[in-house]
Design a protein that fits this description.
The chain has a single domain (about 5-145, about 150-260), classed as Porin. The chain is about 15% helix and about 40% strand. It is built from three helices and 15 strands. The radius of gyration is 17 Å and the shape is globular.
């Protein structure tokens, strides 16, 4: 999606990291349906399971699309995003999602997402809330459509997702996510879904062999400069994560809680 502020081009013209995840959406009445094929590069390293952070990204994309369609031409910003899994997600096959509007108010928009396997087995659910960007000059340049034809060749991850996103573990309990032209959202700040990856990496660095069962992120302010530095404390499977904007006076931008499945 392309945005403009006083006519200036936004980040939508560039190929985004999230395009490599292959998530495709279609409208179904007032809801959205999406699906993607899980490939090995999407898995938590050392496990046979899809990253929860990728489900968080897909939830953010679906819910955000519903929000953007509702408040268009204003740009929505994420207030909170959470994902909860019944079982560890699959390591292959197709994952499907369905998003619906829960609340469409003047100041806050809320949507929920249900995830299933290609055999319609429930994986888990997610929810996200949004508000219009405070800067009223920030708008979508063109109308939104989820049913437009995609690129001639669908992109696919060819390296592990954390590597593709520029996220690396720097110490036990710490992960750093670089800011790049390929990782921005419609507000030209670091994509909120990718921040879920940084939180996941920080937490899992303290729990080798585990995968996340839930992740709840509260967005306090955007990561404008970067890199985003996630610092986690995990005890008995329950974790707290803080994400700071290291290039912007180390401001606290996101607080998160998570819980792991066992190894």
């Amino acid at each position: 999606m392309t945005t403009t502020v006083n006519g200036e081009p936004g980040a939508g013209e560039r190929r985004h990291v999230l395009q490599d995840l292959g998530w495709a959406m279609t409208r179904s009445g007032d809801a959205l349906r999406g699906s993607a094929t899980v490939v090995p590069e999407m898995l938590v390293p050392g496990t046979g399971h899809l990253r929860l952070s990728i489900l968080a990204i897909w939830a953010d994309v679906m819910a955000g699309t519903l929000a953007a369609s509702t408040i268009h031409p204003r740009v929505p910003v994420t207030l909170e995003l959470d994902v909860h899994l019944y079982v560890p997600p699959p390591g292959a096959g197709v994952v499907r999602g369905q998003a619906r509007i829960v609340k469409s108010g003047r100041s806050v928009f809320v949507a929920s997402v249900d995830f299933t396997t290609e055999d319609s087995e429930a994986i888990g659910f997610a929810a996200a809330s949004f508000m219009p960007a405070p800067d009223v000059r920030l708008t979508f340049e063109t109308p939104l459509s989820v049913d437009q034809p995609g690129p001639p060749v669908r992109t696919r991850l060819t390296v592990p997702f954390a590597e593709r996103a520029g996220c690396r573990r720097t110490a036990p309990g710490e992960a750093v996510l670089a800011r790049s032209d390929e990782s921005l959202n419609a507000s030209n700040t670091l994509n909120g879904g990718l921040i879920a990856l940084a939180a996941e990496e920080a937490a899992l660095s303290l729990a080798p062999g585990a995968t996340l069962a839930s992740l709840d992120l509260r967005y306090l302010q955007p990561v404008r400069v970067g890199p985003a530095v996630a610092q986690a404390d995990v005890r008995d499977g329950l974790g707290r994560v803080e994400v700071h904007d290291a290039g912007n006076e180390d401001r606290l931008c996101v607080v998160a809680t998570c819980r792991t499945f066992g190894p």
